[in-house]
Amino acid sequence: MISEFYPNVSLPDLVPFAAGAALMVASLATIRAVLHRRQIRRWRERGQWVSVAAPPEIDPDGAVQLWRHLAQIERGPWKRWWCGQPHLIFEYRFDGPRLRVRIWVPGGVSVPLVRHAVAAAWPGAAVTNETETELGEWK
Fold first, then answer.
1. What is the 3-state secondary structure (H, E, C) of the chain?
2. 136 domain-assigned
3. Total domain count for the chain?
4. 81 is in which domain, residue-wise?
5. Could you read off the pLDDT of 78-91 as tens digits, one per residue?
6. pLDDT digit string (tens) for 12-70?
7. CA-based nearest residue to 103, from 86, 84, 123
8. Any domain includes 86
9. Dist CA 113 CA 72 (whole Å)
10. CB 3.0–4.6 Å: which of 47, 97, 136, 139 could bond 106 by disulfide?
11. What is the pTM of this model?
């Protein structure tokens, strides 16, 4: 089949090129995996919790505004492919009639950006950094 298009090339001549291409793909996959693991470790070590106390009255359009502001942490395609995309984690806790919202912000993501996004979306919301930085076990 190859000989139809390239009469001077035989299949055994292509083996070194195929092996080199396979080695290159394996190397790129390994480098990408190492970069992902290193980045995730950094996000976890440097992350912190932000606590949000919602105001008594909330404008439903504030959620759209919040997500528009938080879209700024999205990375470009190449950086996302090589190093991954950081994820915010939202935690909702109900203590009787009271709702407590916490956002875990990974290291490398601007905590002031998240705080300002919440404050812009819901004026009157109390946003504070927590001293607890542990994320806990992912299961």
1. CHHHHCCCCCHHHHHHHHHHHHHHHHHHHHHHHHHHHHHHHHHHHHCEEEEEECCCCCCCHHHHHHHHHHHHHCCCHHHHHHHCCCCCEEEEEEECCEEEEEEEECCCCCHHHHHHHHHHHCCCCEEEECCCCCCCCCC
2. no
3. 1
4. 2-129
5. 888 888 888 899 99
6. 778 888 899 999 999 999 999 998 888 888 888 888 999 998 887 888 888 899 888 88
7. 86
8. yes
9. 9
10. 47
11. 0.72
Q: Tell me the C-alpha distance between 54 and 119, whole Å.
A: 10
Q: Is residue 55 assigned to a domain?
A: yes
| Cα distances (angstroms) measured from residue 125 to each of 46, 51, 52, 59 | 25, 10, 7, 12
Residue with tokens 């190397």: 27
Tokens of 15: 């083996």
